[in-house]
Amino acid sequence: MFCLCWLLAVSCQRATPELRSPTAGSGRITLGTTSTINTLDPADAYGTFPGSLLYNLSDRLYTYKLGTTDLEPQLASALPTASANGLLYTVPLRKGVVFHDGTPFNAKAMAFSLQRFIQNGGSPSFLLSDLVAAVEPAAEYELTIKLKKPFAAFPSLLAFSGACAVSPKAYEIKAGAFNPATLVGTGPYKLVKYGTDLIRLDAFEQYWGATPANKGLDIQFFSSPSNLYNAFRTGAVDVAYQNLAIDHIRNLQQGAAPNGWQIIEKAGSGIDYLTLNLKSPPLDQLEVRQAIAAMMDRPLLQDRIFQGQIDPLYSLIPTTLEEQTPVFKAQYGDSNVSKATAFLTKAGYSSAKPLKVEFWYRSNLTNDQLAAITLKAAAKKRLGGLMQIDLKSIESTSAYKNLDKGIYPMFLLDWTPDFLDADNYIQPFLECAKGSAAEGCTDGSSFLQGSFYYSDRANQLIDQSRKTQNPETRKQLFMALQDLLAQDVPFIPLWQNKDYLFVQKWIQGASLEVTQKVPFWTLRKA
After folding, report:
1. Domain spans of the chain?
2. Could you tell me if 259 and 252 are in contact, meaning their C-beta atoms sit under 8 angstroms apart?
3. Can you tell me the distance from the alpha carbon of 291 to that of 280, in angstroms, rounded to the nearest whole number?
4. Which helix (H) or strand (E) element contains residue 428?
5. CATH code of domain 269-498
6. 100 in Cβ contact with 190 (< 8 Å)
7. Tens of pLDDT along 169-203?
8. What is the distance between the alpha carbons of residues 222 and 245, in angstroms, rounded to a whole number?
9. pTM to 2 decimals?
10. What is the dihedral sign for C-alpha 405, 407, 410, 415?
């Protein structure tokens, strides 16, 4: 009996090892996420997490220098040169690069990749098809790209994750022909397993650039934020990335010091905003839109709902870009009762005739619901019955299908840019391709956003910003566009997201880029 008890005691001690990496000693990294992915085909993948995988499995002509918003060559050997009219870009290419299947990289391969992105017609194809007239190899290591119209931010667009090089031997140019479960690129990692619950990447031994600091990554997909939270907390994953709940993030922040966890926090590129339907009474009145803008309380949302996990935003352009000007803070502030009352009085509203407006949000997003409830309560508390907000909700998919039908007077939405440039926070909102001041926008960006905003001035400024190659001139034009945004109030910026990366104490070299990308190749076991 004594020997049996002693044996059990020793066995129990051995069954509870010290918390350590699930792949300790293997040189591999385990990353956990709740994000989903349904394709790795660059011509069809369109989302934040698929973009992160493409970022590590493939290379583009240009990328961003780590830790900055500075564009630098990747598969290109230098920044492009543009013709005087801004329609022709010449790109010199890097030599000595091979694809994961051994195929040499050259101008023909890069032209093939961009042509396929455009012609196969995947979800993000419009990004290039709307702009690019032709892509041709001018020499073995020189590419020319002809545009349909000038676009000063074109080099930044070429850093989009899907505009990467893919092996001509592994893909074809044909409408709708996609390879969702494979990726044959030139990146520092190659895909060795693709599954619904696990994706396995191995370091690519023939990579032209710096050798990754690890042998590869095992990416595990979790069904819920709680499962991911517990997996990280117990050391079952080395790194956790997207999408933990607010309470989970707070708890990990509080436990960071005693557990040695690294928590990397970065101002993100995603924004949340209200779109206002200028064709829907009473929002067709400028003073009503101004009153709503004055009553928004961003610090309240930051503290009460998001527990510091967002930043207040006072322009559609985020603070991470130098063109940003906090125009709504200067003109309206937060929860400015006196300004809101003055605007409503000017519009003919009073306690006897209060403003009544619908506020729509996406029913499947808890944070949106909490934000909407909080903003309604704040307006009621501070304005009494002068502004009455009627909350309504609908599921995301249905909402997106109906935005351009003019159904919603006011809607809480979010935006993640396709490429990191001020243009991608202005043109998709304020530009109108067809319309008039009398009838509003009938086709174009503001139409698709459900705002129906039309402004000749906005169209002219956007056109000028796309034509000029001078950075300072572009900055001045974007300042004018932001002033116009605050003046006409077709949208109300609310907050800028924060991105988080959670890293175990035995991992070094972790970083989180402003583009929401995580460079896997710098991760290593301590």
Report:
1. 28-261+504-525, 269-498
2. no
3. 16
4. helix 423-430
5. 3.10.105.10
6. yes
7. 999 999 999 999 999 999 999 999 999 899 999 99
8. 13
9. 0.91
10. negative
